């Protein structure tokens, strides 16, 4: 167990340091050529912190009177808490507990992995690879402080698969929109007067003994005959036999948010889906292959107020195979970044790695820019929402985008559409400036920087060339599409936005209240 706990500590320390360095600390001394360490000053406390540099910082040491004192995980958490209390003027006892919970979850996942094997299917292996998870979140694996036996059976990182619960909903209480009819095939037909509703068993456990089960509004009809495979987002599962995704509400805080299907988002699901269909149908004829997985519709039980409505909601999402080019394998970009057995970046030569990166850029970047600059649609194209599809040689040949929940619309371009449900209903509209900021963070800071980082770990000498090629893809798009000022400003900007997840959680704000800090723009300096 000691090795497991040490590994969990190391992964958790890296996440904390990444956040601290990006959001709060100030570099005091560049990386030492002798040992690869960097010194930072914590401005609120004035303390000096020395860490191993690189993509996965570690080995934190605090400057004391007689030298550098190594910091344990617990000591680092305490140091960060003191710095943030002075930095913000606000106390927070919950976040240190949340960070420790995340560390304990990683330890439990590592322990569970010792007795199971990763999926044979390469796509599923990439979905279930994210042991460390978000590299720039202080508590990426927190599970709401529940005991491991309450969540391990549903943990993708432990290679789980499980049957879904099947409920019957009295027909007059069924609420749905779009086309959720694929749900009717996930179980035997319910009794007359009822409709079928699959449910996530973990969510049912969290909800407890609902009154609707006692008065016949809801029936327990058993389980699905085929297992569901939890994906990297936990609450979304894939049913390989049906080639279908189902996204559920899950009343657990994962990173920044309680993962419910909120009514405000469900109302807009079909509108966003129809708009995205238009966006991807309008891709230029000779553009690289890309598609979006449609969120077809949702179903829930309207059995007593908005809380119940949201709690049992399920979104039906397209499967993979109708969208994939022949002979390709989809991989979650987040899995490629973190690593898994069979990762196409492993064992590459520098030349091969550059070819892989160029193809990744060509398939991912233009569709995102097209959606925003041509249609006013901001895709949430972070690492978990992008599938890179590779051919038999492991090279990207297609990109798939998924999850409509985080999609935003530029208000000036969709004013009539955003008023569809009236002024009192929250809408996914944003200003052009906010939309571009969000896109830049998701695409460059979160996605491209992490994929480039994974390549640079294998081939450090390529770092400059990776970003020169990325800059060229943005510049080429601009040249062919009227030289949008947004791209000109992006390529000239000294900094780009990075989400401040440590401060966000310290201030107890939800993910929708994102705040950003300045991050050095890798595209600006990448000039030949």
From TrEMBL:
GO molecular function terms noted in the UniProt entry: acid-amino acid ligase activity
Q: Start and end of every Aerobactin siderophore biosynthesis IucA/IucC N-terminal domain?
A: 123-335
Origin superkingdom: Bacteria
The record, for Gene3D superfamilies, names: 1.10.510.40
According to its UniProt record, in which pathway does this protein act?
Siderophore biosynthesis
**Annotated Aerobactin siderophore biosynthesis IucA/IucC-like C-terminal domain residues:** 355-512
The protein's matches in Pfam families, at most eight in alphabetical order, are given as: FhuF, IucA_IucC
What are the GO BP annotations of this UniProt entry?
Answer: siderophore biosynthetic process
Looking up PANTHER family in the UniProt record yields: L-2,3-DIAMINOPROPANOATE--CITRATE LIGASE
Family affiliation: Belongs to the IucA/IucC family.
Protein name (database record): IucA/IucC family siderophore biosynthesis protein
Tell me the classification of the organism that encodes this protein.
Answer: Bacteria, Bacillati, Actinomycetota, Actinomycetes, Kitasatosporales
């Amino acid at each position: 167990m000691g090795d497991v706990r040490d590994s969990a500590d190391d992964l958790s320390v890296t996440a904390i340091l990444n956040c601290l360095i990006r959001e709060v600390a100030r570099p005091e001394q560049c990386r030492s050529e002798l040992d690869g360490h960097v010194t930072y000053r914590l401005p609120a406390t004035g303390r000096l912190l020395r860490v191993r540099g690189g993509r996965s910082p570690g080995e934190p040491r605090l400057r004391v009177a007689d030298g550098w004192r190594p910091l344990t995980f617990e000591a680092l958490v305490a140091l960060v808490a003191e710095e943030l209390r002075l930095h913000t003027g606000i106390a927070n006892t919950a976040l240190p507990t949340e960070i420790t919970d995340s560390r304990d979850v990683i330890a439990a996942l590592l322990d569970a992995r010792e007795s199971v094997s990763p999926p044979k299917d390469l796509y599923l292996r990439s979905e279930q690879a994210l042991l460390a998870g978000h590299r720039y979140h202080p508590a990426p694996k927190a599970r709401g402080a529940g005991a491991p036996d309450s969540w391990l059976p549903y943990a993708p990182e432990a290679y789980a698969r499980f049957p879904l619960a099947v409920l019957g909903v009295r027909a007059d209480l069924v609420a749905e929109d779009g086309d959720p009819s694929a749900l009717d095939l996930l179980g035997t037909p319910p009794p007359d007067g009822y409709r079928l509703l699959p449910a996530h068993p973990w969510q049912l456990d969290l909800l407890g003994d609902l009154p609707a089960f006692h008065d016949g509004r809801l029936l327990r009809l058993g389980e699905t005959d085929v297992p569901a495979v939890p994906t990297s987002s936990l609450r979304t599962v894939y049913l390989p036999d049906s080639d279908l995704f189902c996204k559920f509400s899950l009343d657990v805080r994962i990173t920044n948010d309680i993962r419910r299907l909120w009514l405000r988002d469900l109302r807009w699901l079909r509108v966003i889906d129809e708009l995205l269909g238009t966006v991807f149908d309008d891709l230029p004829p000779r553009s690289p292959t890309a598609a979006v997985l449609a969120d077809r519709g949702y179903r829930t039980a309207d059995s007593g107020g908005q809380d119940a409505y949201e709690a049992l909601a399920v979104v039906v999402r397209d499967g993979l195979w109708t969208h994939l080019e022949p002979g390709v394998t989809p991989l979650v970009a987040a899995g490629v970044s973190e690593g898994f057995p069979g990762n196409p970046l492993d064992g590459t030569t520098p030349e091969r790695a550059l070819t892989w990166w160029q193809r990744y850029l060509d398939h991912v970047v233009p569709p995102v820019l097209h959606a925003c600059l041509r249609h006013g649609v901001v895709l949430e194209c972070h690492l978990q929402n992008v599938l890179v599809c590779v051919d038999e040689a492991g090279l990207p040949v297609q990109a798939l985008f998924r999850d409509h929940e985080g999609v935003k619309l530029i208000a000036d371009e969709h004013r009539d559409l955003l008023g569809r449900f009236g002024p009192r209903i929250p809408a996914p509209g944003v200003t052009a400036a906010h939309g571009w900021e969000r896109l830049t963070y998701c695409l460059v800071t979160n996605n491209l920087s992490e994929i480039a980082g994974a390549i640079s770990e294998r081939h450090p000498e390529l770092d400059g060339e990776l970003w020169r090629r990325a800059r060229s893809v943005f510049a080429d798009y601009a040249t062919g599409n009227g030289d949008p000022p947004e791209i000109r400003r992006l390529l000239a900007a000294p900094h780009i936005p990075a989400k401040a997840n440590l401060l966000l959680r310290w201030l107890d704000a939800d993910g929708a209240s994102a705040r950003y800090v300045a991050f050095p723009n890798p595209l600006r300096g990448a000039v030949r």
